């Protein structure tokens, strides 16, 4: 199935006769679920108007690097950060050369340089241009840097010649792009994800809960499916649609969540507990709605079961990842939790006023995570929750396969931390 649901795609369009196909490509990408932002070179504007691409993408087209208004809105760095992938289609011989040389004198070149995401080119040019040694050298160079090539294909060309250099068909490009996200790193594995808040009833109409939106957990469930896993999602009450190919079980309270997770644990290889489970619940749940009375009201609360610790103790071989949302002392609390719960990895994130830089976390579409495991840690800087989820899953898959699950936290002490933070740029 070709799906780009919730993927943010920057589509670069350059000066090739095949640029007229970019309008159709934009539509097909959107049909597959992608959010598309188009960046055009000056050369491209000779072949297709920005207005056409604006109309089909539903967003203004980005054209100028040195544009004060554009920089204030979404400049090259912001566009590069926003994207989950960049596709240049069609990619002219000239833009290929610019890319090989690392040039950033046009917006598209700058976005490609600034992007830390998969970059794919769909070359389109006359067969002789494609075969030219300069083009061949440029292709070798960009390939050696990890840039992907979708095509070109053989066939009849706009110049009337028949040969290699034709841009790959639009539907195939969409499939190629979707395949980038289907990593297969968790093929054959079963992942159980918990998400959302829990509600602890006070009476039939009132409850204790929290601000969790479930977005991070749902994004993780979707990313695990893309990685090839069979995914079970145990979810508290949220207003999100169930991701494709995910089996969801809806619960309300911590007690119900624990029961649903326990019931679903058979065959589970990896447990990722993102749910913001209420720590306390009322001791007494009133059968009838409590009537308002004058004066203060005290509720006696008792702790809810610790789902992650309980499940981990009952299923010690399941690779378990917890989440720690803290308003302060993130690292310290996260590491303590890693040890206390005896889990393999913890993803810590700031919430509340301290989290303004990361987008506020609860309910927002962005976040930043700091992963800790027994002998290492890794910062995942601010990004969309979808992108963070894919990075987290990639990391979990790598750790899971490297260590083939040997429990690392045993003596109650986290060993030396290895800082692998990429410098901010
Ligand atoms: C009618 C016409 C068609 C062209 N088609 C192509 C093409 O398919 N591929 C290509 O690499 N260059 C093609 N070119 C040349 C590019 O448009 C030219 O190199 C331009 O500078 C590319 O600009 P850009 O790479 O900045 O977008 C064509 C030029 C003309 C006049």
Could you explain how this protein is built, in words?
With 425 residues, the protein is of the alpha/beta class. It folds into two domains: 8-181, Flavin prenyltransferase-like (Rossmann fold, 3-Layer(aba) Sandwich); 190-403, 3-Layer(aba) Sandwich (Rossmann fold). 33% of the residues lie in helices and 24% in strands. The protein has 14 helices and 19 strands. The chain has helices at residues 21-31, 50-57, 68-74, 76-82, 93-100, 107-114, 127-131, 133-144, 170-181, 215-226, 254-264, 307-314, 330-340, 385-403; strands spanning 8-13, 35-40, 85-91, 119-123, 148-149, 153-156, 162-166, 190-195, 200-203, 206-208, 230-235, 246-250, 270-273, 280-282, 301-303, 319-326, 345-350, 366-373, 376-384. The strands form five sheets. Strands 12-11-8-13-16-17-18-19 form an eight-stranded mixed sheet, sandwiched between helices. Strands 2-1-3-4-5 form a five-stranded parallel sheet, with helices on both faces. A two-stranded antiparallel ribbon has the order 6-7. α1 packs parallel to α2 (50-57), α1 (21-31) packs across α9 (170-181) and α5 packs across α8 (133-144). It starts with 7 loop residues before the first strand and ends in a 22-residue tail after the last helix. It binds flavin mononucleotide. The site of flavin mononucleotide (FMN) has 16 residues, from α5.
Strand content: 15-25%
Shape: elongated
Major beta sheet, specifics?
8 strands, mixed
Cα distance, first to last residue? Answer: 36 Å
Small-molecule components bound: flavin mononucleotide
Structural class determined from secondary elements: alpha/beta
CATH class of the largest domain: Alpha Beta
Number of strands: 19
Total helical elements:
14
Annotated CATH topology of the largest domain: Rossmann fold
The residue fraction in helices comes out at 25-40%
Provide the number of structural domains. 2
The fourth-level CATH homologous superfamily of the largest domain is CoaB-like
- Spans of at least 5 consecutive residues whose pLDDT stays below 50 are 405-425
In the CATH hierarchy, what is the architecture of the largest domain at level 2?
Answer: 3-Layer(aba) Sandwich
């Amino acid at each position: 199935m070709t799906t780009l649901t919730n993927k943010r795609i920057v589509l670069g369009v350059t000066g090739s006769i095949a640029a007229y196909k970019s309008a159709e490509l934009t539509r097909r990408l959107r049909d597959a679920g992608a959010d598309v932002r188009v960046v055009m070179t000056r050369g491209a504007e000779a072949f297709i108007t920005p207005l056409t691409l604006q109309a089909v993408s539903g967003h203004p087209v980005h054209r100028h690097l040195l544009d004060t208004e554009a920089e204030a809105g979404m400049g090259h760095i912001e566009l590069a950060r926003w994207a989950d992938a960049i596709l240049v289609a069609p990619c002219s011989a000239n833009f290929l050369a610019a890319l090989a040389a690392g040039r950033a004198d046009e917006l598209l070149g700058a976005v490609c340089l600034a992007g830390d995401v998969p970059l794919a080119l769909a070359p389109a040019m006359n067969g002789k241009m494609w075969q030219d040694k300069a083009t061949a050298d440029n292709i070798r160079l960009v390939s050696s840097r990890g840039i992907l090539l979708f095509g070109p294909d053989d066939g009849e060309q706009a110049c009337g010649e028949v040969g290699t250099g034709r841009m790959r068909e639009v539907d195939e490009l969409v499939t190629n792009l979707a395949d980038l996200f289907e990593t297969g790193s968790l093929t054959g594995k079963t992942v159980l994800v918990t998400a959302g808040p829990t509600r602890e009833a006070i009476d039939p109409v009132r409850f204790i809960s929290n601000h969790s939106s479930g977005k991070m957990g749902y994004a993780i469930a979707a990313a695990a499916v893309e990685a090839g896993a069979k995914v079970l999602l145990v979810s508290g009450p949220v207003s999100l649609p169930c991701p494709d190919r995910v089996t969801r079980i809806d619960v309300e309270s911590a007690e119900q969540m624990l029961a649903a997770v326990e019931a679903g644990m058979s065959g589970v290889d990896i447990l990722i507990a993102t749910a913001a489970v209420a720590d306390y619940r009322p001791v007494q749940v009133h059968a009838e709605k409590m009537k308002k009375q004058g004066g203060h009201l005290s509720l006696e609360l008792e702790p809810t079961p610790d789902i992650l610790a309980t499940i981990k103790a009952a299923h010690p071989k399941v690779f378990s990842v917890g989440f720690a949302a803290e308003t302060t002392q993130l690292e310290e609390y996260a590491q303590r939790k890693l040890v206390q719960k005896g889990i393999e990895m913890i993803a810590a994130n700031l919430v509340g006023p301290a989290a303004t830089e990361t987008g506020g976390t609860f309910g927002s579409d962005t976040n930043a995570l700091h992963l800790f495991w027994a002998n290492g840690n890794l910062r995942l800087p601010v990004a969309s929750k979808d992108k963070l989820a894919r990075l987290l899953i990639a990391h979990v898959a790598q750790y899971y396969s490297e260590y083939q699950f040997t429990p690392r936290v045993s003596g109650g002490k986290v060993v030396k931390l290895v800082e692998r933070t990429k410098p901010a740029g």
